[in-house]
Each structure stands twice: as C-alpha cells, then as structure tokens.
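Form 12-C: Joint structure prediction
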Amino acid sequence: MKKTVSIFLLFTALSLSAAAQEMGAAMPFVSIDRNPATAAMAGTQATSALFNPAAIPFQAGDALFSYQLWAPGKENHFNLMASIPFSSRFGLSVIGAYQAGKPYTVYTETGNEKGNFTPADLMAGIGLGFAFTDFLSLGVKAVMANQKLADDAKYTAFYADVFVLFHSAKINASAGVSALGTPVKSGDQAYKLPMVIKGGADYSPISGLKLAVDADYYLNLGFAASIGAQYAFKDMVFARAGYHIGTGKSPIPSHLALGVGFKWKGIHLDVSYLTASQYLGNTISAGLGYSF
Amino acid sequence: MKKAFVLLIGITCLAACVRQEPVQEPEPEQAVALTQEEKDAASFVPGVAYIKLSSDCDGHEIQALKQMLAGFPVKSAKRLFPDAGEFEERTRREGLHLWYVVEYDDKEIPATKAAVHFDGFKDVEIFERPRRVKSDALPFNDPRLADQWHYINGTYPGVDINVNEVWENYTTGNSNVIVSVVDGGVDLEHEDLAANCLPGGANGSKNFTNDTYVITPDRHGTHVAGTIAAVNNNGKGVSGIAGGNAKKNIGGVKIMSCQIFGDQGGNSPAAIKWGADHGAVISQNSWGYVYDLDNNGVIDSEERARGENISISGAEKAAIDYFIKYAGCDNSGNQLATSPMKGGVVIFAAGNDTLPFGSPADYEGCIAVGAMDNSGYRASFSNYGDWVDIAAPGISIMSTYEGNSYGRLQGTSMACPHVSGVAALVVSYYGGPGFTADMLKTRLLNGANPSIIPKSAEIGPLVDALGAMTYGSGDPPAVVSSYTVTPVSNSLELSWKVTGNSRNLPATGYVLYASKNSLAGLDPAQPGEDVQIAVIPVENKKVGETMTARIKGLDFETRYNVTLAGYDYSRNFSAVSAIKSATTQQNNPPIITTTYTGDYKVKAHETLNVIYSASDPDGHDLTITFGAGSLAESWSMGAVTDNYTLTVVGSDADPGTYDTFIQATDSYGLSYTLPIRYTLLENHAPEIVKPIQNMLFKEIGRRFTLDMSEYIQDPDGEILRYSINIGNRSVVNLNQAENILYCTTLGYGLSDVTLTGADAKGLKTTLSFKVLVSEGTQPFKAYPNPVINNLNITIEEQNPVSMEVKIVSSTGQKVYENTVQAGAFDPCQIDLSACPPGRYTLYMSYNGKSSQETIIKK
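Section 2 - Result
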C-alpha cells in the first residue's frame, strides 16, 4: 500500500511539471461521464462500477448502451459499457465509445478552402476489480483512446485508472487516480491527458435515496466537484439531480444535471439532461441497460 | 546559167549555215507603266552594291569577302578601285582598296534584304547601293535610258562607249547616213524605231530570205537596230546611239533592214551588196559561221579543228570588198554628192564561241567586234584574238524588241551595233564630200580607249564615241586669258572661265602648274620635274562658266610661279596662260566644333549623343582619332561628311567621371584635340511612392485599372519596365499594357498580386497587395484549419473592427476568450501553440453578427 501511494505521488509530480503551460488537457473527452444515470447526478461516478472497477465486486452486473448529444460541437457519442462481477471478490468491466465530430472546412495557411473532414474519437478499455475483504477493494482499468482529427493528425494514448474502494451497507467511498497515461505527442510537443486525483462517496440514508459526492483535482488544470442525489421509487422509477462545479481549466465546466430512470426486471432506461452551462447546456444522454 | 544556179545554191547554203549571235536574257519587257516600287528601285542600279570593308580586314579582304558572300547569290565581286599599279600605295593609304563592287542576283534577293545581309557583318563598314546616273547626265527622256549602262555606266563609271558628251556637243545622228542591218528583219513599225527606218522597197529595206520587200520583224534584228538608231528623246523606250533627237526634230541615222534570217536562210552576200547599192555606208553584221555543228552547245576538238580551217567564203568576201569600195560611190567609184562618205565600212560581230577565230569577222577588211561586260572585262563567250579590232559592251544590253517591246540580250551581236552606231555618229558629224571610209575606220580604231580592257583580253580597245569624234583633232581650246590666284594654306586656288575650241566646244580639262622656279618656256604637255601639277576635268561645264580649283601639296609659306593650260579629249593643249606668282600660307590647325550645349551628365537609362564637326581651314585631308574613356562610349561617323557622333550609353559602364577626346590631324601632322569629360550618374533603384491598398470585392466580373507608375517610380526619372505576378489566377486576371493594369475579378477567393518595377540596370522594387473576392455569405473565416500554431481570423470588412472571440474545447471548457481587431486583410492571430490537439469550437461575433466554427488543433 505504501508502495502504491509512492508511485501515485511520483506520477502526480511528473504531471505537475509537464503540463504547466498548456491551455487544457489532451483528449479531454476521457473525462466525460458516459453513464446517463451518474451524468444526471452531475457526474458523481466515483463509486459506479461502470466507471470504477473497484466497485464491481460489491455491485450487481450491468451492461449499458448509451447515446449522447454532446452540446459543445453538437457531437454524437455512442457508448457501450459493462461491469461483470464473477464472484463476490472479482469482477471485470469493459468500455467502448465512439464520438462522431461534425465535419469541418479545411483551410490552407492562406485561407483558401481545401475540402472537408469529419473527425472522430474512439475509446476502448477493460477494467478489473478485486475485493481484498468484504469492505475493501482495488480496481484497475486500462484504456486506449484514439483521436482522428485530420488525415495527417491521428493520435493515440493509453491510460489507466486506479482506485480503491471502501464498501459498507450504506456508504461507498473511493479514491484513486484516473487518466494516468502517456502524453499525446504532436510534432515536438507533448500534451498531458486530463489526469485527475479523484475521491468520491455515496450514501443511502434511507431506502430509495442515494446521495453522492465527487471531488476531483485535475493536475495543473483545476479543481472540480460534483454532488448528486437519486431517489428510487420501488426500484423502478428514478429521479436524479446534481450539480457540478468545474474551476480553472478542469475539462468539464460547471453545470446542473437532471435525469430520470426506469427499471423493470433488470432492464433500465436512463436519461440525463445537462443545463445551466453556457457551452455544456442542452447536452442530452440516454442509455438502455440491463442489470443482472 | 547553170554555173550561176550552182553559185546561187552555194550562197544559199552558206547563208543557211550562218548563225545569229545573241544570247537572250529571259526577260522580255513590255511597255507598261512602272509601279511605285519599280520607280523606287529605278533610283538605284539594280543588283549592285558598293561595300567598304573595315580596316580590320586589311590584308585579308578576300577571306572576309568570302565569309560574307557565302550563301549570298553573288555574281561577281571586284575591287571598286582596281589595282592602280604605281599608284597602288596611295590607293591603299586612302583605304580605297577596301571598296568592293558586289553584283548579285536581285531577283533572288531584293536590295533591302541584301542590305540587311551585309549589315549583319561587322567587317562591313559601309554598304550602299550605287545610284543611277542623275537626270542631268541623261540627255534624253527615253525612260529606259537609265537601264542602258552601255551608254552611261553608273556602276563602273567610264566603262561605256563614252557617248554622252558626243550627244551633247557633237551630234545625235544624221538622217543622211544609212546603216544596212544585215540580220533578222527589223520591226520597221516599232514605236521607237519607225522614224529612223527605211521602209521595204526598191530603195529601202529588203527581205533576202524570199527576195521580197516584206520584212518579217525579228527580235535579233530589231534589237540590233535599236542600239544603232532607236529614236532618242521621244519619251519612249530606249535610246539609240545615233537615233537623233526627236524633241529637237533631229532625225537619226536610217536603218536599212536587209533580212537574211527567217524560215529560210537569206542571201547574205547579196544583202551586204544591197546596202552599198542603195545608199548605206555602214554595213552592220551580227552573224557568223556555225562551229557547233551538232548544235549541242559545246564545241568539241573536232569541231574546233574544222573551224580553224574555215575562212570567209568567196561570195561574202566579194560582197564585203564591194561594199567597202563602192558604198556611197557611183559606178566609177566617185563619192556621190548626196553620200556622206566615200566607201563603206563593214562591221562584224566576233562570235560567241569563246574561240580564238571567227569568220567572217576575221576577214581583214571587216571591223571585228568583241564583247565586254559592264566592268571592263571580256565577256565569257566572246571570241578573241589579235584579229578582233575593237570591243564594245555585249552583256545585258537593253534595246528594242519586236512588237513595241523592249528587253535585254547579250552577245557579240549586241556589241557589234555599238561600233556601228558610233561609226554612224562619226559619219553624221564629219560626213560629207571628202570623208572616206578609211577616215572613219581610223577614227573608230585609233580613237578607241585602250585603258579600260586589259590587252590580255584580246578583244581590242573599247569603242569610244568621243574618242572617235576627237581623234586627230588639232583644235585645242583657247588659252585662258585671265585668272586669279589665291593662296589657301599650302594650296594655290586658281579661278578662271572655261574656254572653247574653234567650234566653241569646251575644253576637256585644264592642267594647273606651280613651281618654285621659273615657268618660262613651259611645255604644257611635258612639264619638268620641278613643276607640280593638278589635272582638273571640266566635266559638264560650258564655255564661259567659272572654274575654281587648287594645286595642293605645296610647301608652306613659299613663293610659287603658277599658270594653267587647257586641253581637249585628244590631249591637244592650249598655250599656257600668263605666269603669276603667289606665296602659300602657313598651316592652320584643324577645327572641331559642336552645337551641343547641354551638360555631359548621363543617367543610367539615358544615352547621350553629341555630334562634332571636324574641318580644316586649309582644306587638308583630316585623320580623326577618338579617345575611349569608358565602355559606355562609342564613336561613329555621322550621316553628314566630317561629322562624328559621340554616343554615351549610361548603362554600359560604372558611375563616374570619364575623360575622352576627339582629335583631328591634318595631312601635315598638325592636330587639334578637343577634350571631353562626361559623367555617368549613379543609378538608383525604383522606389515605392505609394502603397496599394488591399482590395475587397463582392462580385465576379468587376473591372478596375491600376496605373503602376503611380505606385513605383524611379528616382532617376527613368520610365520603368513593369511586370506582374498573380498568386491565384482563378481569382483575378490582370492584363498589362505598359504601366497600366486592366484587372477583372474572375472567381471567389484570395490572391496575392505582386508588381515589379525594373530599371535599365536591372534594379527592381516589388509591391504586393491582396485581392479578395467574397461571396458575402461567410463573413468570418478562421484559417488554417487544422491549425498548429497561429489561427487567423478575418471578417469581410475592408478596415479592421473589434470582434469577440471565444474558443471552447470539445468538453465545453473555454480555453480562449478575447476582444480582437480583425479585417479582411488584417487577420487577428491567436496563438494556439499551447493548445493540445483536439476539436474546438470557435465562437466569433461583431456588430450583431456571430458564427461558430469547428477548428482543429493539431
């Protein structure tokens, strides 16, 4: 454990020194919450098994396909994710995402048109969760992210998420680091991914109610925090809300999130709507999943 | 009777075997009006050029000539001033040996192109076309007289029959002189001959081919007759040697056509005799025996051997002897009162076979005539030998053709009537009781000019009309009774009036004499060695007109005795005039002047031309030398004699001040040098005097103009050469007319346009501007996209305005926000080099207009 913390601190220091002059992080889309249920709670996903593999051993399995109409750039995101507990100690998760950007006009250095190009992003990852005890687990996720911006501008990065999670009957708490990976190189420049030190917890004080909070520190970029609440009626109908505060150059700006969900015999449909943000407002997500 | 019949057959056969002599030049000419071009061409001798080689060619003139004549349709090239023997040294000293006469085929290359050809050679210092003899040298108005070089040679002056002065001062012919032309039939009705022809009849012309009086016009006979007696000064065709003067109502000698050529051969002996019996005193015969028996154009050795053994037939000899003896006489041999001459002369063409023999011309009773070309050489075809008595022009002879036309023929046949014509002139002038054929023959042969044709040509001396007319004269011009002497430097200038002989004909020339010693007892024909002379021809002056001439080359400031004497064509001298004394003056230096009053500062784009005039107050010849201050400087001879032009080309040397000079040195070494200093000014590069605003257009097909000289000018005042470069020709089209640009927008887009102004030295200045043609539907533009470092944003405003710019990452994070200034040609630049690769959204707004674009950062 001590060794893990040391490695974590080393990565943190490296990230701090490398990204001092950047105007943001490379591939910021890795920070997007692709699960409509947690997105509706302003991205409080630290204890969600679809995000954090450390939670897999303590949660039911879930498979989800979601679509997002992502307001900045009006892009279409298609996501596929699943968390699969194989036992009370061990589970596996996968994630895949495809983001279709809007076509843009290519202009030369002198301003003359040179055609059009449609950019796209692709993500794929796999996570493992292992519970050391009935209340403590570790999760690791490895992700490959690819970004195709132009015929001569294609970038690929690999990163990992590492989390520990404490589990009890009413509380889940997790801490770790996300987007810890290789920088994106363009020419002789290297740009860091939006690596974040993340902590989060959820609490269910009464049946059907869940309160969640996430706190993020994006190295060299800024702090962010999210709070969210979910109320479940007979575990069939869900109402969700939350608020995210993004400061500095943290990838996701502040916004208000709302959402609803429906579940019947494991099949669930969730919808989220982000608002109260100049650029992120009107982002809609919808997901269809199956819990098992 | 039988014998007579056989004799007749024999004569007929002989007649059939004689042949005409002409070699026709294939250019039958009709009497048509000259075009303007032809009139212009008539100003110059066709197909002839005078060329002066540069002094660089001295010593290898032939090599230089060969080089420049390679591929040129040249006929001949000879020195204009032939080797002068004992005077060759001074001929060369004066550079006259560098002058050449080039004859060329003017049908193959016109004169203008010939000039261009020779101008292309640096070794050609002067190219000029010899002008035809001016009208004052052409005594008649016959339009083709200018083409009759054989009378007055404009190309080789003096190489002609010297008839002009005879026409002016002696005679143009007399109608009581009859020349029988034993030849093809003469066109008796020819417009330029009829007045001087005897019609067919018992006492006139006769056809001996059919024994009738009907003459069949024949080219050869008509051409021969025209040379002798084409009517002069009638405004038509050609001139004849003894053709009279129609304007003065003076008839020419009469032509009696004795036709012996036709479908059948004629009786030539009878034809010759017919002339003697019917008033002719000159028998003209341009025919001879056939030596080319197989008529293949070549006389082989067998034919030559046979020819050597052919002599005149007995019948023709008898007829010739008869003509010589009885022409102009009665049956007793006494001169008829109406005849201009006792006895006759029979003149024959020598023949055209390039043979050293030729009958009947070689019969000693005849005058045999060889042919010469227009430069004084034997014609290539002419027979030759010591039996040829006299030569005459036989190349390119212009005369009458049958049917009122005219043209050129060549041959001894054409030379022969020149002698007959001159003979007719002599008889016309001297003829009368007591004038005999021997006297005529003596004048013809002894008065001929032996200095033109080399003796080696073996065609005798050149017939000379004036020589024949003046031969044996004992009638020198009168002594000059009064004259003045004026010293001019080391020359003595004499002035006197032309004197005439007893018939008031002007002297041929005068000899001026000067000596430091006494001139008492001076023999004008043989002055002593201590006497300096100057021979002054009278040329066209009349008796009583004033002549002024100098004896040059005397010692300076020396007292001389002077006198003068006139002489006629036969070198009969008058007595010398009274002897006078005069003292020559000192030598004066040459003078160099110019009318140029400007400064001698030359800008790089300028060329300075200054004309200097060099003269010698003493009239001495001058040698002009020039300095060479710089490569920018050159000297040339001016169009006016003794004018010299200094040319300084400002771009041909570095800036600076240079010294040069022009120096004139007289023939005695006295010189004057005019120093000249000129300055080549510094060249300055063109300058931009006004920027060109970038241009925004919102329509295709918009036209506008630009005067480039308003924007780029030369500080030296030079008119610049402008050029343009268009970055995108699909946007704008520019047509340049000198310094004006005519512009049209062709399509939407942006194009850089670069103007370049260059001066004569190649210094350039460029000025660029942009032309933007916009549809107006896209007020914002951000480029490049994708961007690596700087993102440019333009808006469709001619002048920059404030605009709001925001850049948001793909996750909605604002990475840039600012208020910037931007315009169509003044983009704002946003440094995105620190921005990670990715998609961003660009928000732009100004004046209520807004737009958002996806931009890519690489």
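Section 3 - Comments
Residues 538 and 747 of chain B are 85 Å apart (CA to CA). The interface with chain A takes residues 728, 749-750, 781-786, 788, 792, 794, 808-816, 827, 832-839, 841, 853-858 of chain B (CB under 8 Å).
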